[in-house]
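ESCALATION

Customer reports they have been waiting on this structure for their group meeting. Please prioritize. Original submission:
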Amino acid sequence: MSLAARLGSFAAEMRPGDLSPDVIEQLKLRLLDLFGAAVSGIEAGGWRAFANEPAAGSACIWPSGRQGAAREAAFLNSFVSHATYMEDGSRFTGGHPSSVVVPAALAAFEDAGRGSGTDFLVAMATGYEVFLRLGRTVYPEIVQRGFQSTAALGAVASAAAVASAHKLSRAEAGNAIAIAATMGFGLKHALKAPASQPVQVARACQGGVIACEAAARGATGSADILEASLLPMYGATGAPQGITEGLGRTFSVSETYIKLHGGCRGNHAPIDIVQDLLLRSGRAVEEIATIRIAVDSVTHAADIEDPQTPGQAQFSARFAVAAHLLTGDALPRRYSAIRLADPDQQALMAKIALMVSPELDSSYPEQRGAWAQIDFTDGRSISDTVALACGEPETPVSLAAVETKFQRLAGASLGDDAARLRDLVADLERLSDVKQLTVLLGRATHHPQATGKENALEIQQ
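Update from on-call: job pushed to the front of the queue and completed.
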C-alpha cells in the first residue's frame, strides 16, 4: 500500500474515540492560539491585496465576514492565520500546521452544512498528524534546500483534514492526498517579503480543499507520489514505512511550540536569554554597551539584519530583542513603522550583533537555542546560553498564558466576542456546530494594527 493510501485510510478511519483527553486539550489550546493569530493577521491588512469578490458558498471568510466558497475561505483565512507569524509551529518540521489545517477543516465543515466540535477536533488532529509526521522526515533538509515547510507540506495536511471533515472513503482520501502533493509549494526566500509570503501558505491550504473536492468527484492521484517524488525532493532519506508507525494510536500535537513573542521563531530564544541576562544583572537598558548573540545557521539565514519595513522587522533578531527590552514585549503591534523609526530603538539595535554558533548548529533541531553576552558601559559583562525558547514542549506555557495572549491579540477587534470565542473553544467537545466559531471571527473589526500609542504588556509565562 502506498504512503498516500495509508494516510488516506488514517484520515477516513479516525474517530472521536481515538483522541485522549490530553490530546483534546492540546488541540483546543492550539486552536485558541490560532484564532488570536488570525485576528492579528486580519488587523495587519495584507490580505486585502489578495481578496476578490467571493463565489457563492456558505463558508465564512474571516477578514471580511462574508460568505463564500470553501476554497476561497480557506485561502484568505489561512493567509491571515499566518500573516503575523504568531501561530504555533514545530522545530522538528520548520513549519506551522495550524495555519493550513484549521482554516481548511472549518471551511469544509461549513461547506458541508454540518460539523460538531468533536468532528472538528478529529479533523484537526488528522491534519496535524500528517503534517508533523511528513515534516519530521524531511527537516531540516527541506529548509537547507531552500523550501518553506508550511507551504511545501501544507496541501497534503490540509487534504487529510478536509478528507476527515467530508468523511471521504479510504480510496477517496488517499487520492485527495496524492493530488494535494502536487498543489503545495513554497520557497524560504519568500520570507524576505513577509507581507506577501503568507500567500504560498494560503495556496497550500486551498490546495488541500481543491484536492478533496476533485477526489470526491472521482479524480485520482499518482499513488506513490509521496515516497517516489515529494519526500525525496525535500530531502527525505529514511524509509517511508516509519511515517505511519503508531498512526492513529499516538499523536504529535504536543510537540508544537506556542509563541509568546511576535515575529520569526528563531528570534525568541535570543529575546528570552537577553531579557534573562539583563534581569539577572540588575542593570538598566541604558547601561548596555553591546549585545552579542549567537544562533544556529538556519535561524541566521532567515535573519534580516537591517529591516526597512515592519514586515522585514519580523525576521530581525536585532529589532525583536531591542523592542522587547524597550517596551516589555515583542507582540505583532511592535513590528510597526512607529517602532522602526523610534530613535531609541535604532540606537539599541546598533549595539546588537548576530552571529552563527557551530555548537548550536550541532544540537539543531533537537534544540533551537541562543547564546548571548551583554557588555555594560562599566566594562563588566554577563553571558549564558538557553537551549530552547519558552513555549516548546520541554518549556510549555500554561492555559492562562495562551488565554492572555489571545485576549491581547484579539480583544480590541473582537470586543466582548473574544470572551465568547474563548469559552466556545474551551467547551468545544459539546459544540453542536463549528459555525458558531467562525461567525464570531467574521465579526472582527478592521483597524490598522500599528496606530496610536504603544502600551507595554507582559504575557505571563
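Sent to customer with the following note: Confidence is low (pLDDT under 50) at residues 447-461.
Escalation resolved.
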